[in-house]
Amino acid sequence: MNPNKTIKEFFEGEKQYTIPVYQRAYSWDEKQWNDFLEDLLEATKGDNHYFFGNVLLEKTDENKTNGIDIIDGQQRITTIIIFARALINALEQKAKNQRLDEEKSNEEFLRYIKEDFLIYRSKPKLQAVEYDRDYFKDVIIQNDNNKHNPQTPSQERIKKAKEFFTKELEKRGSQEILALFKALENAEILSVPFTNKKDSVLMFELQNNRGKDLTNLEKLKSYLAYQIYTYCDKETAETKLREITDIFKEIYRLINAIKNNEDSILNWFNISKFGFEYRENDNEKNYKKEYKRATETKSNEEKIAWIENYVKELKNAFVNFKEFEGSKSVYKDYLLYLNVWEIYPFILKAYRIFKGEQELEQVFKALEIIALRDKLVRTRADLASRLNSVLKNFNSVESLILGLQKICSDEWRYWSDGNFSNGLINIYKENDKKSLPTY
């Protein structure tokens, strides 16, 4: 592969690019879309070609010269394809009343753009990450807006990106749209090839500080993919990665149905497993450390089994948090209203321990006491560190209640009855001796 290409050369012919399963899904939003469009508009005003930057690529099969994975640069490449779809739609409308090209008929000219940027001989130019692939193909490649409703945050962004570019291009005349197309065709890109899957996954991890930041959930997924490629042969690695990708697909669908963000739930889940010493952004105190600690003396098969079990438990945490948010418990309502984050790891652990609603209700009721005290007392004391032993010893409703009673006792002082009473008095004063808020 020649590393220096125009965008036209990058896509033309039978080339087909794929975003591999360990990659992040589409994450760009209006700021990045607007920057993309502004850069292209700027390129139409001068003789210099716009430079899209570097793209890291891996040939997926030595016997198939046209199959290529995108290791880094997938956000830009995906946006180019979405923009091309919106541009083609805009030109199709213009073609009803005027000629677009001096040499080609309108039909031939539009077919030429579609074959270069969208689909060639029934092969899409870009296959999105697996759990968004069908949606991307239908909405962007096939231009069918009615076949799917967005099921994941990334699918919602794909839809909105298409709408954004469609709206922007509707404002412009044919000549300006054609100038944008020429600027896109002639823009330059530097493609850097890789041939080793393990190195490709590692390079993705090393590149994750570029562009829009990866979420912690995306960083976790790429780290686990690297471990799988490290400790499995190629065939087994592909099978295991597909299985884990299917689980992450379910997680991304659950994210749309949960009010809290994905990284918060990931953090609370890990704290529920490993304790309040856990730090998501510290490699000496996060899942990397826990994985190494649990598996450093284990066989390769046991390392992979740890990953599989961890990912299944993580998915269950998202399922359980959705159930918690949908619970009819009045104490659940109180907990969400108070929104003391330190209680959420207890809730996720409770769902792992208990199956019955009665026990969960008792847990919610006990947690509401410490959450309300923490809100009213307003101490600077660190609640998380005090709750650490309670969380680790939590294996029954009784153990939870006993642990929380100690936190609320005079021995610990901060959340004691006396300080709680003072907190209530202060609330009355702050509200001019009127009734307490609805809670």
TrEMBL record:
Residues 7-224 form the GmrSD restriction endonucleases N-terminal domain. Pfam families: GmrSD_N. This is RloF. It comes from Helicobacter muridarum.
